[in-house]
Amino acid sequence: MPVTTPKLPSIRVYQPTKISDDFVGEYGKLSTGYRQVTRLYGGWWSAKWDMTNYPDATKRGFFSRRAGAHVGVFERGLLIWVGLVWEMDYYDRGVLRRISMEKVRNAVKCIWTDQSDGTRSETAYFTNDQSIDRYGRIEEIVYLDNTYQDTAEKYAQTILREQQFPISRILTVREPEKEQQQSQLRVSCVGYIHTLNYRYVTISDSERTIGGSLGSIGVAINTDSEFVIQGHIDTNSVLTRPPETATRVWDWISELAEIGDGTNPYTVQVYGYKRLKYFKIDTAPTLFWDGSALRTGTTRNTGTYKFSVRPGILRDLTWPSAPLASTQLLENKQDSFVSEVEASTDYGMPILKSDDFNDSDLLANLLQSQASLLEERED
To answer: What angle do CA 355, 319, 321 make, to 5 degrees?
Structure first.
């Protein structure tokens, strides 16, 4: 039987949320290779797809105008992923271009030391309101030693001028392939958890507990997050203090989450509605592998259901069972932490990964390739 192209979920693109919630268009019908990643620490982490089958004018327009756009992905009317367009690669007639939000900065200041007496000072933030009104405030702190205030200010202004908007840049130019019929566009997105690193932590008062709505995590979200809002925050009485050096919000929150409470591990995740949740990780198994199918309880997670699988504890029923001591974190030798779930229209069941997984692992890549070939033969 001929191999059929998997049907993609509905990919709905909107204006950046700072501008409006206006709908731009649906881009799932002709796209291919949809893939999304969900992480134990972070929640909906990334997504990408290929728009090669769209007309050249559509691809060029999308590439030029949609960096930072809001994206909602739906499967049979159910929301399965939310984020924003982060980076795009466009290849046509030998030229590979990239446009990215990665280096966008629209609020820049410089911390500097005076050349005469070593006094440490900082400039005000230099900003671009047009960029902030479109993408939100994205801060950057730069440093200069043994200098003057005027020099520090000009340095911050230069960085702002260079990085205030996403700009299309040429990555490579080469002789085009003779057989190329279409230009190619790959769209890469990130979840809203990434916007927590747009800003630096500004709370500077005395010690707080990690958890609770008035703890460090909750206050950081309420004070220094423009897009992510506070959801349920578990209590955790472990005390902490604000960072002493300039630290981005997600970097600090993820560090706090990994501290736990001495007995239980905790995590922070953002899913739909951009609400951050901080909670204890349930160490009872939520995923089960029997050698032929992945299950959450009695549900077989293939096809449509694969996009609903979330990281947690995997019990490998093909491995000999043996209970672990009560002082250990997991219950059984069959159990393992799943830190990342990758689901794609290109393969049937999701790929579960631990923190020890490495994409360069040849055996893992070989097994994935063999599984894909087997699925094609079955189709």
So the answer is: 105
User: Smallest Cα–Cα separation from 169: which of 83, 69, 64?
Assistant: 64
Residue with tokens 């030693």: 145
Q: Where are the beta strands (DSSP E) in 76-224?
A: 78-92, 95-100, 107-114, 120-122, 126-127, 139-147, 169-173, 184-190, 208-209
Of 108, 11, 127, nearest to 69 by C-alpha is 11
Average pLDDT, the chain: 90
CA distance 253 to 270: 12
127 exposure class (CB count in 10 Å sphere: 0-12, 13-18, 19+)? middle
Name, in order, each residue with C-beta under 8 angstroms of 48's C-beta and a sequence gap of 6 or more: 33, 34, 35, 186, 187, 188, 189
Distance CA 207, CA 106 (A): 31
DSSP helix/strand/coil, 277: strand
DSSP state of 75: E
Phi, psi of 228, rounded to the nearest 5 degrees: -80, 135
pLDDT band at 96 (very low <50, low <70, confident <90, very high): very high
Are the C-beta atoms of 110 and 121 separated by less than 8 Å? no
- At residue 364, the pLDDT reads 59
Query: Is the dihedral angle over the CA atoms 45, 283, 335, 300 positive or is it negative?
Result: negative
Residue 3 confidence (pLDDT): 36
pLDDT above 50: residue 47: yes
What whole-number percentage of the chain has pLDDT above 90?
74
Q: What is the pLDDT of residue 92?
A: 93
Residue type, 157: Q
Q: Does the pLDDT at position 376 exceed 80?
A: no
What residue type is assigned to position 214 of the chain?
A: L
CA 49 to chain centre: 15
Asked if 347 and 339 count as a contact pair (C-beta separation under 8 A), the reply is no
**300: pLDDT confidence band, cut at 50, 70 and 90?**
low
Q: How many CB atoms lie within 10 A of CB 146?
A: 11
- Rounded CA separation 109/126 (Å): 6
